[in-house]
Amino acid sequence: SHADSPVILKILQNWVPRVSHYFDKEHYTYVGHQIVIHESIEHFGAVVWPGALALSQYLESNQEQFNLKDKKVLEIGAGTGLVSIVACILGAYVTATDLPEVLENLSYNISRNTQNMNMHKPEVRKLVWGEGLNEDFPVSTYHYDFILATDVVYHHAALDPLLATMVYFCKPGTVLLWANKFRFSTDYEFLEKLCNMFKTTILAEFPESNVKLLKATVREN
Known about the structure:
Largest sheet: 8 strands, mixed
Shape: globular
Oligomer: single chain
Number of helices: 6
Helix content: 25-40%
CATH architecture: 3-Layer(aba) Sandwich
Radius of gyration: 16 Å
Number of domains: 1
CATH topology: Rossmann fold
Distance between the termini: 23 Å
Structural class: alpha/beta
Number of strands: 11
Strand content: 25-35%
CATH class: Alpha Beta
């Protein structure tokens, strides 16, 4: 039906360009807040990718449909932290996770952009996809309303552990929002696996950036 077809959007230039010799700081504005992101050249996860911009923009524009206020939100592969910061500004209890080597920059960006704000204090934690989930995030204690993931699928081999991680955290009632740039056959293979595991809808497409934004929920038998 027409209602189910994705909305076609453009990633808006929400960042303020700065003249700098070092490509290390980006300034964005979301939900009325200036956000300064420090990027790190050494690490893959420490650059703002288009999926993060797409999801941040979508969450900002669709606050009725996806109301994050007082919701428990987990971001996997949080990278620079932009999406987690936006979720925080929107009132969520945020846990931002990534690989150990990314956490220092991630923590810096999140604390810098959320301090002195009247919002739930976000948490930054290590999460290696598919590893130690039962120990670090036992189901009895941790239940999330939303799982956010952006640009987690690129040319790499960690796709099965990534899917296993999504399956682990997606309980009945959890909404997974995943935005990704689609370039490689592996991206589409992952999408196919996701569609087999979950009830999946494409919410939005950003054709100029090759980004798709998907919503996935557990299939109710």
